[in-house]
Design a protein that fits this description.
The chain is of the alpha+beta class. It has one domain: Folate-binding fold (2-Layer Sandwich), CATH 3.30.2270.10. Helix content is 18%, strand content 29%. The protein is built from 2 helices and 6 strands, in the order E-E-E-H-E-E-E-H. Strands 3-4-5-6 form a 4-stranded antiparallel beta sheet, with helices on one face. The protein has a two-stranded antiparallel ribbon with strand order 1-2. The radius of gyration is 14 Å and the shape is globular. The protein starts with a strand and ends in an 8-residue tail after the last helix.
């Protein structure tokens, strides 16, 4: 079972209390985008085996969106942090590197 701590209210929530929001740190495209850009935004996503950055909403709690860094194979959660963060904080990247020596980075 996946457990994530909401960085806003501090509740440790299981996946039944959360709503997935897809890949984190992607450029959102709106009406000004070309058809190709909008199609890429909708359909082209990373689906890595290993470390991944995702958006989640604490649906059955405070209702706020947040980001999570986790391993898609082991479900190990490295950190959660506010959704307003444009890139993973350095302390999150350092936590991943400490547990995954040789990890290349988030981009």
């Amino acid at each position: 079972m996946l457990l994530l701590e909401c960085p806003y209210c501090g509740v440790m929530a299981d996946e039944t209390e959360l709503a997935p929001g897809g890949e984190a740190h992607i450029a959102r495209r709106g009406p000004e985008a070309s058809e190709e850009e909008f199609a890429a935004y909708l359909f082209e996503r990373k689906n890595p085996r290993g470390v991944h950055f995702e958006r989640w909403r604490h649906a059955a709690g405070c209702g706020k969106w947040f980001h999570a860094a986790r391993d898609t194979v082991t479900l190990e959660v490295f950190a959660t942090y506010p959704a307003q963060t444009l890139a993973p904080p350095e302390e999150v990247l350092a936590a991943i590197r400490s547990k995954r020596p040789g990890w290349e980075g988030w981009r």
